[in-house]
Amino acid sequence: MDQNQIEEMLGALGLGPGDALFVHSSLSSMGYVEGGAETVVAALLGSLGSEGTLAVPTFDEERSTDVFDPATDPSGLGSISEAVRTHRDATRTAEGSVAAIGRNAGEITAAFGPSFWAGDGPLWQLYALDARILLLGVTYRTCTFFHVIEQLVQVSYREWVTEEGFVREPDGDMRRFTIRMYPQKSDSPGNDFNKFGSALEERGLVWIGQVGNAMARIFRARDALSVGVEMYRQNRMIFAKTGPERTRLADGVEISRDRCVVDAGAVYVAERGNG
Predict the structure, then answer these.
(1) How many domains does the chain have?
(2) How far is the C-alpha of 132 from the C-alpha of 16, rounded, in Å?
(3) What is the signed CA dihedral for 161, 165, 170, 171, rounded to 10 degrees?
């Protein structure tokens, strides 16, 4: 699969010039891609055009140091995310949560509120831009934007905690920063974002297709937030796991690491592996 083929498949999903797009992805779910993650990023940028904006999450929950360098610390969220981070035109938030390329990249990555999820943070900038969210070969379980809704409605199974660390500035100086996180409580039932995603699909708010072997789902951040708040008023556990198993999606085959594909036998694993 090459760049032109990927762009054609993205266009069939309704993606077009000028869109702002937030992507969660798995390269291996797509099958073989000539040129790997860099080709996928080129196809995404080609689909969005010069007036569009591409953003990806780039945090790393496994990072063991309290000193963060946004210029060099890698993304922990797969090959496509890392290819965006290292792109020559990319900018990144100071605390490393998001990288972006394109017309509105600067305002997205300059946003830094008291929390990644809060009203001054980068995900709210995507909401303000009426961004679309693309799940490329992954399930709704990976969708960080849904945490914005959890924070907004103040779900009972999460709590605010304050963390401190240091950011390395471009000139090498160290700057202390404080950020509020919103992790699950120790007795939390865990998330079931597939349950909420399935509800969006039932309302006809999700475009579903495929890009190579990857199942692809696109929906608007604004739709997710408005429906999420509405549904939470009716069901306080709409985002949470309530049974022994999490919700399975109607379209696609779910496999390990929260991936969603057309054919589990067509997943491509390169020599060095990819995400």
Answers:
(1) 1
(2) 11
(3) 140
- Helix (H) and strand (E) counts in the chain: 8, 12
**Alpha-carbon distance values, 4 to 37, 41, 43, 134, 204 (Å):** 14, 12, 7, 18, 28
Q: Which two tokens stand for residue 108?
A: 């997205």
Q: How far, in Å, CA of 64 to CA of 77, rounded? A: 16
In a domain, 7, yes or no: yes
**Alpha helix positions (H), 86-218:** 105-110, 122-128, 145-153, 193-202
CB 146 within 8 A of CB 224: yes
User: In sequence order, what are the residues at sequence separation of 6 or more whose Cβ sits closer than 8 angstroms to the Cβ of residue 187?
Assistant: 157
User: What letter would DSSP give residue 268?
Assistant: -
For the segment 22-78, what is each residue's pLDDT rounded down to a tens digit?
Answer: 999 999 999 999 999 999 999 999 999 999 999 999 987 666 567 778 788 888 889
Q: Measured between alpha carbons, how far is 198 from 44 in angstroms, rounded to an integer?
A: 25
Q: Residue 93 sits in which domain range?
A: 3-152+191-266
With 0-12 CB in 10 A as exposed, 13-18 as middle and 19+ as buried, what is 170? Answer: exposed
Instruction: Give me the residues paired with residue 163 across strands.
Output: 179
Element (H, E) at 74: none
Q: Which residue has the tokens 């032109």?
A: 4
| Assigned domain for 24 exists | yes
Task: Evaluate whether residue 186 is within a structural domain.
Answer: no
Does any domain span residue 105? yes
* Continuous segment of H or E residues that includes residue 164: strand 161-168
Q: Is the pLDDT of residue 169 over 90?
A: no
**In whole angstroms, what is the distance from residue 222 CA to residue 229 CA?**
11
Tell me the pLDDT tens digit for each residue of 110-151: 876 666 666 678 998 999 999 999 999 999 999 999 999 998
Cβ count near 21 (within 10 Å): 24
